[in-house]
Structure formats: structure tokens, C-alpha cells
Design a protein that fits this description.
This protein is of the alpha+beta class. The protein is built from eleven helices and 17 strands. The protein has two domains: about 280 residues, no CATH class; about 120 residues, Beta-Lactamase (2-Layer Sandwich), CATH 3.30.450. Strands 4-5-9-8-12-11-10 form a seven-stranded antiparallel beta sheet, sandwiched between helices. It has a five-stranded antiparallel beta sheet with strand order 2-1-7-6-3, covered by helices on one side. It is rod-shaped.
Length: about 475
């Protein structure tokens, strides 16, 4: 039961931990999807706004050129571009250059006096309805091949090619009227969108895949041809707008990109924000969620460990209690047996004390140290000693020494050797050895020894029928030995 409970607690803790991390992962994923959706919606709205503003600016130029075209066709002698510029302040906001060129595409009128007499490029003379194209850099016919760079704040810049919108004039034949286009919308969108230092706003030519204008830090050193990048087919495949995530080929930075096609033009407005900045709130929440999940996991593990420790402690306590109860039971049993044994020993002692005087033979017991514990009168008689010389605890060798000294006079060394021999004979392992002697008065005795369980000996001295020679009188009168 304890093992099953422990396993169940471990399984529950693991299950709770898995659920915690599943919920945390789900919350992180949902937050990331929500944040990405918000960013994509905001970028899509900004791209749409940029496309609409570019469309309006181009329409403004187109309508202004149509008015100037009609005025020229009506009376070319009185049509002066510098005078019309004052009447069209909205046009002046989106164009830096307004010109009329002859059939050789040489500028004959321009709001920039320095441009008069220069060519605009043969590429714009073959489009009857006008065209929006970048002038070729390094083309000798182009009057301005420089890149326009303007500060936008937050260390961001705008880089833009010179683009022209041109329309044919009815007379003289082959003459053109045109205006350059500089998008103010690009700067405005980037400035108010809050795209951050890694943000990007751009206009992309969908016919060649060229970058017509770009705002942001990417404009410092941009890649201007993106036709072979994964982003370009993603933009051209969409009829209206879309979202793309990945490295932007202009500078290779990973971004979330929203794009929107400019209606009626071969242009796509693009607004992008770095994935790191865009997903920053979601990433911060993910870190906090993982930290919370880790704390919850540690808490579950701690509670599980505490429960397991309690179970283990309870198991050890129960085991100790069982062992204690068993030990107490054994102690009670041993105490009962000890009491019974003591009663038996008391009864045996009583029986021995009762039987010893009745025994015909001399009987005595000694302990493991060969000290006298019990005896009868006959045992003292067998040694030829008076009964009052025997008392509990007297050594057996002292009794033998007294018995030998009383019988005959021998050198001390021989006497001690005989005592040692007799003791060794009585302590023989077989228990069949015996010693013989004769006491004063001529009675002969034989003593046998039997080992006892406690290491002592049971000594039995029996009188023999034959008598040994009696000791000499002078030997019998020898001085007694102190016991």
C-alpha cells in the first residue's frame, strides 16, 4: 500500500508538471499568435495607408499634368510652368521637377532653370499614356542621377530614386510634359508608424523587382534589386495585399512584412518591423510564463517530496512500532520463561539440597572456575576433611592440596604437579577419567567428574571395596593446611 501510494504521488506530480507546461506552452503560443496578429493587422493597415497615399499623390500629379496638358494644347504660347506652379501648391508638395520637353526630349521649360536644355532620357518618349519608371543611373541623358537622402529622426534615412510621370502633348508633335515624383507619404508613414530602429517602409517596382524608395536604417546601404528573393514572388502572387515573414532582401534582417499594391500602378507599398521588436511583448510574456511554470513545477515537486517523506517517515515509525511491539512481546515471553526457569532452578536447588545428604556417595559441584558451589557430608568424608572446612567458593585445588598434604609429605613441587594432574584429569573432555586416593583410616575413594552446561563439574566420590595402605601416623599428624 505504501509503495502504491508513493507511485501514485509520483505519477500525479509528473502529470501536474506536464499539464503545467502544456498550459504554459499553450498560453505562450496563443499570446504569440495574438501578438503576431496584432502586428500583422497594424502593418497591413500602415501598408494600405501608404499605398493609398502614394495612389493619391500619383493621381494628383496625373491630374495636374492633365490640366497643364489641356492648357498647353489650348494655347502653348501662354502656358508657363513657373506660373502654374504657384496655382498648384499641392503639386509642388510631391514634385521637385515639372518640365516640358521637345521631340528630342530636351527640356524647353522647367521649374528648375538649371534643367532647361538637358535631356530627360529616350526611355520616356515611347509611352503615350505616361509611365512611372526609375531613370537609369549613369545614363548621360538623365539630368539628376544623385540619390536623395533626408533625415527622418531615430537614426533613420530615406533613399529614393528620381521617378517621372510623363504625358504626351498634342502639339508640337512628340513633345512631352512631365513631373518628378518624390513620395512624402513614405516619410510620413515611417515617422508616425513607430516601427522602431529596425523598421522599414519601401516602394517596390513589380515589373523589375527594383526598390524605388526605402525609409529606415535599411536605406543606409540597401540591396536595390530583390527580384530573385523569396519576398518578390510572394508580393507579385498576391492581387491586392498580404503578409510575409522572413529576412527582407533589402538588408537581410528578419522582419514581419505587410505589403499592399498601389491601385493601377506597378508599385507595391511595403511596411515591415523586425520580428524581435514586433514579438517583444510576446517574448517577455513567454519568459514570465516559463518562469511561473518552473515555480509551479518546483512547488508541485516540493509538495510531492514532502508527502513522500511523510509516507516514508510514517512507514519507518510504523515499522519501529511493530518492532517495539514484537520486542516487548519477546521480552514478556522471555521474562515469563525466566520466571519459570527461576522457579525450576529453585525447585532443583531444593531437590538437590534435599537429595545431597541422602546420597551414599560424596557429591559436589564446582563452577567454571573450579570453585565449590554444593556438597554433602560424604564429599568432605571422601577428602578426609572435616565438614566445617568446606564452604561455598573454596577452590577445588585447595581441597586437593589439603587432602594430599594430610595424607603424605611430599616436596612442594611434586605436590603442585600432582594437583595440576588431578585437575586436568577431572577436566578431561571425555568425562570418563577418574582419580583414586586413600584417606586416613584406610578408606579408598574414587572420584569421577561429569561436565555441566555452565562449564562446571559434577564430582562424585565413591568408596572402593579394597582398601589402600593407611598412611603413616606421623603423616596423618601433619600440620593442617589453611584453606
Amino acid at each position: 500500500m505504501e509503495a502504491l501510494a508513493s507511485v501514485a504521488i509520483v505519477v500525479i506530480c509528473l502529470a501536474l508538471s506536464v499539464l503545467i507546461w502544456i498550459n504554459a506552452a499553450s498560453a505562450i503560443r496563443e499570446r504569440a499568435e495574438d501578438q503576431r496578429g496584432r502586428v500583422e493587422a497594424a502593418l497591413t493597415a500602415q501598408a494600405t495607408t501608404l499605398a493609398m497615399q502614394v495612389e493619391h499623390e500619383l493621381l494628383m500629379i496625373d491630374q495636374s499634368l492633365a490640366i497643364l496638358q489641356a492648357a498647353w494644347d489650348q494655347n502653348p504660347d501662354t502656358t508657363r510652368l513657373d506660373e502654374w506652379q504657384k496655382k498648384m501648391p499641392a503639386l509642388a508638395a510631391v514634385t521637385k521637377d515639372l518640365f516640358i520637353a521637345n521631340q528630342q526630349h530636351v527640356i524647353v521649360q522647367d521649374i528648375l532653370p538649371a534643367a532647361i536644355g538637358q535631356g530627360i532620357g529616350a526611355a520616356y518618349g515611347n509611352f503615350a499614356n505616361g509611365s512611372l519608371e526609375p531613370l537609369r543611373v549613369n545614363d548621360p541623358a538623365v539630368h539628376d542621377t544623385t540619390l536623395l537622402i533626408g533625415e527622418l529622426g531615430n537614426e533613420a534615412v530615406t533613399r529614393q530614386f528620381v521617378m517621372y510621370l510623363v504625358r504626351p502633348l498634342l502639339q508640337p508633335a512628340g513633345w512631352l510634359i512631365g513631373a518628378s515624383y518624390h513620395s512624402q507619404a513614405l516619410s510620413d508613414v515611417f515617422a508616425v508608424a513607430g516601427l522602431g530602429q529596425g523598421g522599414l517602409a519601401a516602394l517596390i517596382d513589380t515589373r523589375r523587382g527594383g526598390v524605388q524608395a526605402v525609409a529606415g536604417r535599411a536605406a543606409v546601404n540597401p540591396t536595390l534589386l530583390i527580384a530573385k528573393s523569396p519576398l518578390y514572388p510572394a508580393m507579385t502572387a498576391k492581387a491586392d495585399s498580404g503578409v510575409w515573414i522572413g529576412p527582407v532582401p533589402i538588408d537581410g534582417v528578419d522582419r514581419i512584412v505587410a505589403f499592399h499594391r498601389v491601385p493601377g500602378r506597378d508599385l507595391v507599398a511595403l511596411v515591415a518591423e523586425t520580428s524581435k521588436v514586433a514579438m517583444g511583448p510576446a517574448d517577455s510574456l513567454a519568459v514570465a510564463t516559463r518562469s511561473l511554470a518552473m515555480i509551479a513545477t518546483l512547488l508541485v515537486a516540493g509538495i510531492g517530496a514532502a508527502v513522500l517523506w511523510e509516507i516514508w517517515h510514517w512507514r519507518q515509525t510504523s515499522r519501529r512500532r511493530r518492532l517495539l511491539a514484537h520486542a516487548q512481546s519477546l521480552l514478556a515471553s522471555l521474562q515469563a520463561e525466566h520466571g519459570t526457569l527461576r522457579q525450576r532452578i529453585a525447585i532443583d536447588d531444593l531437590q538437590v539440597q534435599t537429595l545431597l545428604p541422602l546420597a551414599a556417595a560424596g557429591v559436589a559441584t564446582v563452577d567454571a572456575q573450579d570453585r565449590l558451589t554444593r556438597w554433602n557430608t560424604q564429599f568432605a568424608e571422601s577428602l578426609g576433611l572435616p565438614p566445617d572446612m568446606l564452604h561455598a567458593g573454596v577452590p577445588l585445588d585447595a581441597l586437593l592440596r589439603r587432602q594430599l598434604s594430610a595424607r603424605q609429605a611430599e616436596p612442594a613441587a611434586e605436590l603442585e604437579a600432582e594437583i595440576v594432574r588431578r585437575l586436568a584429569t577431572l577436566r578431561t573432555e571425555t568425562g570418563d577419567a577418574s582419580i583414586d586416593w586413600t584417606v586416613a583410616g584406610g578408606s579408598a575413594w574414587t572420584m569421577r567428574a561429569r561436565p555441566l552446561p555452565d562449564g562446571g563439574l559434577l564430582l562424585v566420590a565413591q568408596r572402593r571395596a579394597e582398601a589402600l595402605p593407611a598412611p603413616e601416623p606421623e603423616q596423618a599428624a601433619a600440620d593442617p593446611v589453611e584453606l
